[in-house]
Amino acid sequence: MKPTLDQIRGLCSTDEGRKDIANPFHFWVEGKQYVGATNGHVAIAVQETDFPDGVEPAPGKIPTTFGDAVREARSASRPITVGEIRAWIDPLPPDTECSTCDGAGTDADCDVCDGRGSHDWPDCEADHDCGNCNGVGGFKICPECNGRGKHRPRALPARVVDGVYVDRLLVRDLLAALPADTVDVLMRWTDGKAWVLFTPSKDDAWVGIVMPMRFDVGTGGDADTRPKLFFGVLA
Asked: Do 183 and 83 belong together in one domain?
């Protein structure tokens, strides 16, 4: 099986400044059709025979970036199971409830006007509409948690190979987008350290992409002691 549209939709960006990647998109690589999703840090591309309704063409340079990743993934040569990956990223700290919306993700009061929609200006007796919420007093989608109702822990660097680190939370996000019956995958990291790639071991139905992060060894955390995910450097 391969990821469904609903599964990959969870990797779309919720950042108000990245509306160009707020929804899945489609593109072509060497005559094959793909549907993809990304939040700018983790991504997935799924081979499809038909583009689902409402899925627009990929914006900007995304087709080129994804095309390079799909071609690169074909040379993935480190077999690993999803169970091994899960064991490597665990344990992960839990998300914390958003205090702005009390975990609801919606109907959040504006923290500037305390939900009133207006506030007093210094040396002025009249109320004025709050500029933060445009006088509404709140938000349909909580601006602090982007509607999730929870806050993620801070980034958790972990070593893939010497000098290449990924955020374990991003790997978790990618695994969540895969079909439940996914067992065996292949992995690869690029010499240019542009990404860490995951692909099925039996076909090229999808490719998962995790962007490495900058991390200075010795700055703390468990990235220095956690075993490397790759047991050796791959060509």
From this structure: yes
